[in-house]
Design brief:
The complex is a heterodimer of chains A (about 280) and B (about 375).
Chain A: H1 3-16, E1 24-32, E2 39-54, E3 59-68, E4 72-79, E5 84-91, E6 107-112, E7 118-132, E8 138-145, E9 149-153, E10 164-169, E11 173-177, E12 186-191, E13 195-199, E14 208-214, E15 218-222, E16 228-235, E17 239-240, E18 245-248, E19 251-254, E20 263-270, E21 274-278
Parallel strand pairs in A: 2-5, 2-6, 2-7, 7-8, 7-9, 8-10, 9-11, 10-12, 11-13, 12-14, 13-15, 14-20, 15-21, 16-20, 17-21
Antiparallel strand pairs in A: 1-3, 3-6, 4-5, 16-19, 18-19
Chain B: H1 2-34, H2 42-53, E1 68-69, E2 72-74, E3 79-80, E4 84-87, E5 91-93, E6 96-97, E7 101-104, E8 108-111, E9 115-116, E10 120-123, E11 127-130, E12 133-134, E13 137-143, H3 159-187, H4 189-201, H5 203-229, H6 232-269, H7 276-303, H8 308-335, H9 346-355, H10 374-377
Parallel strand pairs in B: 1-4, 2-5, 3-6, 4-7, 5-8, 6-9, 7-10, 8-11, 9-12, 10-13
Classes of the chains: A mainly beta (about 280), B alpha/beta (about 375).
Chain lengths: ~280, ~375
């Protein structure tokens, strides 16, 4: 057999077999809300497309998952004793559908009750995620993403006080829009090699402390011109553009810091990565 | 010649047709499995549920023997204890079910006043809340209900397709090694020759050197990183150094493996001492045959997927052979400095030294050259 024929057959085998090794299923899961006691929600999703939004009905949750049963196990479970809601898929093997074709990609839609106080944590792998978190009653938010492309919106005010927002960005691209609506007072961000964009649009109700650790990734922080910004910088090769800031003993202050009603305090630890501030009053 | 070409074309055609057939059969079987079952028996239900029991969320589904067949109703005011399981029909809940409600190929309809105190699980059906309540989770599952395996492969996939997948994987590795081998043969044949020489002169020494190298790889990388981290410029170079280090190690292993393959192939085909061009072609042929030999246990293991125990044994043999070959090859590549330094044994060096002064003497005899001595070669004062 010629070398060309050999390579052709090997390539054909490789492309012909994966289609037969997938078992696509859809699960539609929900639970009626019995009370409005606080719960913890864990969404663990490895690969595919993820949508999260507030539920329109009285359900505690409603989730629709399309998954490859050969590679993954769906998780849709509420433990009423510990009050923990777990949603997502568990990987059985490391092989994941490439998702090149619409029919070859897993997907998940999760609708969460907006009346129940909730600690929400999301652990996302190679996921394209659209998170509509406005209108929920979040008390704590944790987002960990490996190689995801995540956009989170707070286009409605959060119905509770969001104590801490923890963002761990590996090689992902994460955008958070209208974060002021979340009512958050503390943001902890760790960026490896990806990019994180935080838009503090919306209505800022309180001062915000942001602790950002940037290895090689970048942080873009969009603030309102009315807000005063303070940056405490500890950087190696990275840092931020200091134009419009005044150096004082403990850090860099924006020109309007003293006059501003609300303040954004950034504690920046940058190794190689850098922070970009936009929307600032110069 | 034409006959040979025709045979090759026919072989190619048959091979491609077989591959296409495998793909078509697997797709067709997937489509058939997605059809809703027309008629369900206890046996077919048992097989269908086996695929679901592997999922942790489906653990509460009872065995097929617990299912009743056809439409069923829990009447108003009536209490059903335990799990109610229905196959091939709808379950109407007007009273109370104290446990779970499960249907296969049918809907669960919870009417006004009806209640399920456990979970509601409809396989190939829906959970409809028509004014009733479900205390637990409601789940409706649809799609391909073929059984799936814990290891990620579908056991109901035909054995032929699993075997074809394993064979394709081995063939893919062989193809990659052959392509890399051809590249090395063209662009770095001298290095390959030197590594082969090092192996032939001392296999045991190469193997030991290979083990030592494997043990030293991680500490050497750590030392390199520590050394680079001492300076600012060096710290920035660490990621590049790590990548370069890994590539260098992989290159040495590949070079060594190809050298082993060439020696193995030569041992089968034998030496051919002809012109330089023919020798190069023979060396390439030896390497390809050697790679085939090295991959043979992997192909055998792939062909034994019908017997997991036999496959495991042969796969272990394949792993052992490949490890020994890779280790010895790595050692030879290190000993010969990646093929830059030609291996010379002390005996070869000695014979080279003693003979270098002499001129070959025909039997008929010629005047022998005088051996140069320090006295005669010294410059006159």
């Amino acid at each position: 057999m010629s070398a060309r024929a050999f390579v052709s057959i090997a390539a054909l085998v490789a492309t012909a077999l994966p289609a037969g090794a997938q078992t696509w299923r859809t699960i539609d899961a929900s639970r009626q809300a019995r009370d409005t006691g606080a719960i913890a929600t864990h969404i663990d999703y490895a690969a595919g497309k993820l949508d999260v939004r507030p539920a329109t009905g009285p359900a505690l949750y409603h989730a629709t998952l399309r998954y490859d049963a050969d590679q993954t196990d769906p998780v849709t479970r509420f433990d009423s004793a510990s009050r923990v809601l777990s949603l997502g898929v568990h990987l059985r093997s490391m092989h994941i559908s490439s998702g090149n074709h619409e029919n070859d990609a897993g997907s998940m839609l999760a609708e969460l009750n907006s009346a129940v106080p909730m600690d929400l944590s999301l652990d996302l792998g190679a996921v394209e995620a659209d998170l509509q978190l406005g209108g929920l009653r979040l008390t704590d938010l944790s987002l960990r993403s490996g190689a995801a492309d995540v956009t989170a919106h707070f286009n409605q005010p959060n119905h509770g006080t969001l104590r801490t927002m923890t963002l761990q960005v590996g090689a992902a691209q994460v955008k958070l829009m209208d974060v002021a609506n979340a009512g958050v007072s503390r943001i902890v961000a760790e960026v490896g090699a990806g990019s994180l964009s935080i838009d503090l649009g919306g209505t800022l109700a309180r001062d915000v402390d942001i602790t950002a650790t940037l290895a090689m990734g970048g942080l873009t922080l969009n603030v309102s011109p009315d807000e005063g910004v303070f940056v405490d910088e500890r950087s190696f090769l990275g840092g931020f553009e200091k134009n419009g800031f005044t150096k004082k003993a403990d850090g860099w202050y924006s020109a309007n810091y003293d006059a501003a009603t609300h303040h954004v305090r950034v504690h920046l630890h940058a190794f190689v990565g850098g922070m970009t501030l936009t929307g600032l009053q110069k | 010649m034409r006959t040979l070409q025709a045979r090759a074309a026919m072989f190619n055609m048959v091979g491609m047709a077989l591959i296409a057939a495998i793909g078509l059969v697997s797709r067709a079987s997937a489509l058939v499995a997605q059809q809703r079952p027309a008629h369900i028996t206890v046996d077919s239900l048992s097989k269908a549920l086996a695929g679901l029991h592997e999922s942790s969320d489906s653990a509460s589904i009872p065995a097929a023997s617990a299912f009743a067949f056809g439409d069923s109703t829990v009447a108003a005011g009536r209490h059903a204890s335990g799990t109610v399981a229905i196959a091939d029909g709808a379950l109407h809940v007007r009273g109370t079910i104290d446990g779970d409600a499960v249907t296969y190929n049918g809907d669960i309809i919870v009417h006004q006043g009806g209640a399920i105190r456990g979970n509601a699980f409809a396989v190939l059906g829906k959970v409809v809340l028509d004014g009733g309540t479900v205390a637990g989770d409601s789940r409706a599952i649809a799609g391909d209900m073929r059984r799936v395996g814990a290891g990620g492969a579908a056991p109901n996939q035909s054995r032929a397709s699993i075997m074809a997948h394993a064979l394709a994987l081995s063939a893919g590795w062989l193809a990659v090694l052959v392509i890399v081998g051809i590249g090395v043969h063209i662009f770095a044949s001298r290095n390959l020759d030197a590594v082969s020489d090092a192996l032939e002169r001392g296999f045991g020494r190469s193997f030991l050197a290979g083990i030592a190298t494997q043990l030293a790889l991680a500490p050497a990388l750590a030392l390199l990183c520590v050394g680079l981290a001492l300076t600012i410029i060096g710290a920035l170079l660490i990621p590049f150094a790590v990548v370069a280090y890994i590539l260098a190690a992989a290159g040495l292993v590949t070079l060594g493996l190809l050298a082993i393959a060439r020696i193995a192939g030569r041992s089968v085909l034998g030496d051919i001492d002809t012109s330089d061009g023919a020798r190069r072609a023979a060396a390439l042929r030896s390497m390809v045959y050697g790679l085939l030999l090295l991959m043979l246990p992997w192909f055998i293991a792939a062909g034994l997927t019908w017997s997991p125990s036999l496959e495991l044994i042969v796969r272990m043999v394949a792993v052992s052979i490949t490890w020994v070959a890779a280790t010895a090859g790595l050692g030879a590549a290190v000993v010969s400095r990646g093929g830059v330094r030609r291996a010379t044994t002390p005996r070869a060096q000695s014979s080279l030294n003693t003979a270098s002064w002499a001129t070959p003497t025909p039997v008929a005899g010629v005047t022998a050259a005088r051996r140069p001595t320090p006295y005669t070669t010294a410059a006159p004062k």
